[in-house]
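Follow-up to my post from last week.
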Amino acid sequence: MGCSCARDTLATLAMFALIDCNNFYASAERVFRPDLAGVPIVVLSNNDGCIIARSNEAKALGFEMGDPYHLVKEKIAKNGVAVFSSNYTLYGDLSRRVVETIAPFAAESEVYSIDESFLRFSSELDWLKLGREIRATVRKHTGIPVSVGFGPSKVLAKAANRLAKKSPASDGVFVMPDGEAKHAILRSLATKDLWGIGSRLATRLEAIGVKSAFELMNLPEETARKVLTVVGARICKELQGYSCLDLEEIAPAKKEIVCSRSFGHAITDKNEMSEAVAEYVARAAEKLRRQNSVAENLRVFIETNPFKPEQRQYFGSAGVQLETASSFTPDLIQAAGSALKECWRDGFRFKKAGVMLFGIQPASAFQSSFATPEPEVIARRGRAMAALDKLNRFYGRGSVNLAAAGIARQWQMRRSLCSRRYTTRWEELPLVLAG
Amino acid sequence: MQALEARKPLPLPMMLVQCPAGFPSPADDYLDGVIDLNEKLIAHPAATFLMRVSGHSMTEAGIFDGALLVVDRALQARDGSIVVAVVEGSLTVKRLKIVKGQPWLVPASKDFQPIEITDEAFQIWGVVAHVIHSPR
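User reply:
Got it. Predicted complex:
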């Protein structure tokens, strides 16, 4: 049984664009702070623990992902680096805006993570021109800089995107060429820099003499499947130019979990949508628990069918910040329910919905040492947590807390350097000077 | 507690005839449609941001201290547009004027001076599409 690439034959044109935001969290912090253009920026993880994002200037200064904050504090001060606690609420909303801005450029779009989306095209276009237009439009509308890579498969689009970013001559847009030009590029690309191939698989490949993406592309299917599993074999096919990978088959390298699906029939009933969303939350929560993580933020999005322009179109999205990071499905479902309530509109025929969990941290950072409670306690806990979440969302984080349960503030998030939730809170709107 | 849901449409019943201060015509015995304020004020949701005004340099244009601005980044700024621009790293609201090909940021108050823009890297952050002012 070969790879199921009967899904896409060469007869049907498929072109993918991978659009991803440059240094997304750092770029997000610049949107309302034009004074930070060109200034090195680092963003800290929850609890201000370590660096999770850097602007290009901070990268140039030698700051690395995962650097513990307390160890680099001095270097930060010495170099005039701007520091921010992660503001997932802001990032989530800006991410939504980027996604909405790029959606009209293609018939099909797929959100892959908080800062990456794929577009799919089925007719030939001037790709370079289109890429430049996408880049300019996203920058103008949202303030976020993006890079665009085009290729006949997702793996190739991802590789093209990497080149769009890394090669200054490309100016943020790169189209994967054919023939010898493509081979030259793949020869200079290490396997570990390919989507879906991490350092572990790269080591396995090196053991059989495969070092570059070009060598991987030419690997016989049997060998690929044996060394890399069936997903790895599909990556080879994708390198050859065949599209046969579903987004779900490769987890994002970054710390978000997305679960989204198109529906077989359009959904117009809110209860039916609630059920679908709950199912996606459950699936995403499972992945979360499997990697021993908890999530603090959740975003729900719902869309109508762009293939049916005669129908009213609507793209809705709403985010929730949980008071306590959780991987407890009932908690997450309640949060998703609140988010859905905010973005739901009657009178539309929804074709697709999705859930994104972000603000992900290791579960061990929390008091997850409690024994599993009784079912009634779980139910009560679920309701209590939901009410808590709703109130905190309206009045601001930390306004309402669990009454003196002794768990008090010891583990409370340290978030001292958070920027304002400029786009989601009336009381935190940006100020513009008339003076 | 009334939960303020800022993103829900604000439906206002629409009368079919103008009724300046008196009663509508009794012949109008049905209402047609509802008006969603979001539809009117937010043409490009992904590119629209709300901002608060701090200061008095635009009062003669009807923009007062504390007003709410609906800023649309998808719009093209033109001569005469009220814009949010970046001046010395800060966001500022002014009227854009093009004089002999040269951009100026002009206040709407005699207590403030126009600014000539000579910096090549001058940035318009967005165009002010609407101004919301509460008289009370």
